[in-house]
Write a structure and sequence with these properties.
The protein is of the alpha/beta class and about 325 residues long. About 55% of the residues lie in helices and about 10% in strands. It contains 12 helices and 8 strands. It has an 8-stranded mixed sheet with strand order 3-2-1-4-5-6-7-8, with helices on both faces. Strand 4, helix 5 and strand 5 form a beta-alpha-beta unit. Helix 9 crosses helix 10.
Amino acid sequence: MNQFKNVAVAGGGSIGVAFALQFARAGKSVRIFEPSPERGALIPGEIRAKLEMLGAAGLLEGEAAVVAARIQVTPELQSAAADCDLVLECVPEVVDIKRELFAQLERHVGPDVPLCSASSALPASRFCSELATRQRCLVTHPGNPPYLIPIVELVPAPFTDAAVVQRCSAYFQQVGMSPVVVQREVEGFVFNRLQGALLREAYCLVRDGVASVEDIDKVVRDGLGLRWSVIGPFETVDLNTRGGIAAHAQKLGPAYERMGRERGQNDPWTDELVAKVAAQRRALLPLDQWEARVGWRDQQLMQLAKMRQARAANDDAAR
């Protein structure tokens, strides 16, 4: 397994600090490059506060002060990048800013060190294509905050070396994150495309007077979100319909197609697409194991219900 010790984080905003926390919790030494003196002065206090919260929740191994000591803040990019094994760029979502920063990083970082961007939507080919060592560049987009949401999307550009992607995947696994390799560049990747689809419909439902903002949040929080915290959308409908996802598509596919056309979207679930999705689901869960998996899902939801009841009781007691 690829081992590493030193991480450079370029950009001390919320994602940069959150990434630094996650890597420091795993025992890595982190240097944050933050050119703004005002912003840089605030970072140590933010780190201490977040570590104290993690400790109070039982999510921190070791003393908060020990973890905090693994993180340093510097206004010098060259100092932050010295002897690092991994670079995480966390600057604003502006092509020119990222392009200039990566050009500087290429000069200051060893040629074999992966250069990763926490870009939320912009693919690496938009700002790394002119680098001499562009083969070590990729997007590593985390959920926010990464010290609580473990998913991280690894999005290689067409020029990214597959071995670099594999090494980065191993690095993120070592610090307790859950990497997913996106198979080709697309704006927004997977996380924000899924999130964006839900947000677009949510805005439309408010616009059309179908539901309030509060009620839409309630539907997700007390409905969709509960299931999705245990299983994803494909497994959800696979387990909701006896016969699995193919049966679900047959029964409800036409209704979803009509809903899409209502929004100007014509992406029907063709027989070929449904067969592809169903084949992947059946490889993960044969139909003879469907009943057992439904029972497992229900047990997970029962545990969530119990936790929510306990939280509600604690909130009532605190009032």
